[in-house]
Amino acid sequence: MLGPVILAASRSDRMRRLISAAPVTKQVVDRFIPGETVGDIVPVIEELTGRGLELTMDVVGEDITSPEQAAAARDAYLALVEHLRTLGLGERVEMSVKLSMFGQALPGGHELALANVRPVVEAAAAIGTTVTLDAEDHTTLDSMFAIHEELRKDFPGTGCVIQAYLFRTEADARRLAAAGSRVRLVKGAYKEPAEVAHQQKSEIDKAYVRVLRTLMEGEGYPMVGSHDPRLISIAQELARRAGRKLDEYEFQMLYGIRSDEHLRLAAEGHRMRVYTAYGTDWYGYFMRRLAEKPANLRFFLRSMITHD
Fold it and tell me: What is the pTM of this model?
């Protein structure tokens, strides 16, 4: 399987230098990350929301090695909130954050990440939007869920992400499928050991459906993070069986992947949210997009071969 190899490369400084230096890399990265600054991304926000889509914004960057960098990540999100306020798009655009960016892996990281993310969540609530805590590797999840629970005391709309490939996720889903919760379900994009996660695609897909059924039958708000046409159809059927209206769940897909499907679902009346990342520290995010889907890797390799 190429996925684990690519994920290993995402942590290699040598591969980072090699791929970053390739002339074709920028044009391929631009497919997934349409800008480096808030100013770059404003036209993208306006275009997508103008076409009936909603967004969740991610400021890319995970290799945080100091409290000062964590504070800078907090400030980058606060600047994004201010731009959304100026645009009057708080109700159409939420934010996704990785707690590693807020200092979670540093000494005292749990408390530091909570202290840094809280003002972002507070500022988001003030303009009518929400924040979703992204899931990272399995060793960080207990801290993430604890921070999620703490934030929901004051900001109940704070969402979180669960990953179908982890064995623990079915129990997490049962706990989270409560009234007022917002839960995004994804397959998972980190290299996890066989002791904690399914390794075969077929098993991951089966787990995804089981967890999705739990969320749809629960009292919370499911967010279906998938580009898989079969899983999208299953999600629609599970929602129908659970008696959910179209505004009682949503689909989420990545910017640059299956864009026609984004518009199709929105045209059918579904809530369709596009996960849109921006920033300069794009390498880790980009490599996970390649690892998630073979078609993304083929696209990248074909671009390198055909580049003049």
Answer: 0.87
- Give the separation between CA 236 and CA 250, rounded to whole angstroms: 10
What is the greatest pairwise CA distance in the chain?
55
* Contact criterion met (CB below 8 Å) for 64 and 73: yes
For residue 174, which phi and psi values (nearest 5 degrees)? -60, -40
pLDDT tens by residue, 229-284 = 999 999 999 999 999 999 999 999 999 889 999 999 999 999 999 999 998 776 66
Cα gap 47→41, rounded to integer Å: 10
Residue type, 130: T
- 255: closest CA among 209, 299, 224, 286? 286
The total of other beta-carbon atoms located within 10 Å of residue 166's CB is 23
Report the alpha-carbon distance of residue 295 to residue 300 in Å, rounded.
Answer: 9
What are the residue numbers of the active site? 134, 184
Residue 133 main-chain phi, psi, to 5 deg = -85, 115
